[in-house]
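PROTEIN DESIGN WORKSHEET
SECTION A - STRUCTURE
LENGTH: 107
TOKENS:
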């Protein structure tokens, strides 16, 4: 549920009702497919392509107005946060910020 107040509540329209609408969930899925995936992939460093190719929708929006996109490669945590010999590339964070959010609870 959004962290901001609902200006429509005074009209009896609540987030839970909006999130369940098929049109909302279709739009969320289209956004993930057509915006989030290609953006995240464009920020991904490419060596073998394994990381970039592992970025996928892992949870489609069905009735909550949200879904999940993840990188499932074994080295995903190192690409995002860096490691002893790996710089922090942060492609998930860069993608989230492009669309006004944050990834992994960062601020």
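SECTION B - SEQUENCE
RESIDUE ASSIGNMENT:
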């Amino acid at each position: 549920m959004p962290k901001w107040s609902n200006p429509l509540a005074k009209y009896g329209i609540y987030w839970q009702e909006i999130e369940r609408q098929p049109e909302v969930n279709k739009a969320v899925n289209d956004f993930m497919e057509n915006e989030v995936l290609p953006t995240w992939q464009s920020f991904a460093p490419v060596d073998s392509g394994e990381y970039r190719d592992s970025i996928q929708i892992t949870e489609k929006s069905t009735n909550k107005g949200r879904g999940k996109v993840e990188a499932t490669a074994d080295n995903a945590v190192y690409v995002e946060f860096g490691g002893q010999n790996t710089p922090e590339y942060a492609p998930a964070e860069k993608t989230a910020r492009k669309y006004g959010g944050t990834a992994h609870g960062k601020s």
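SECTION C - NOTES
DSSP finds five helices and two strands in the chain.
The longest helix spans residues 22-43.
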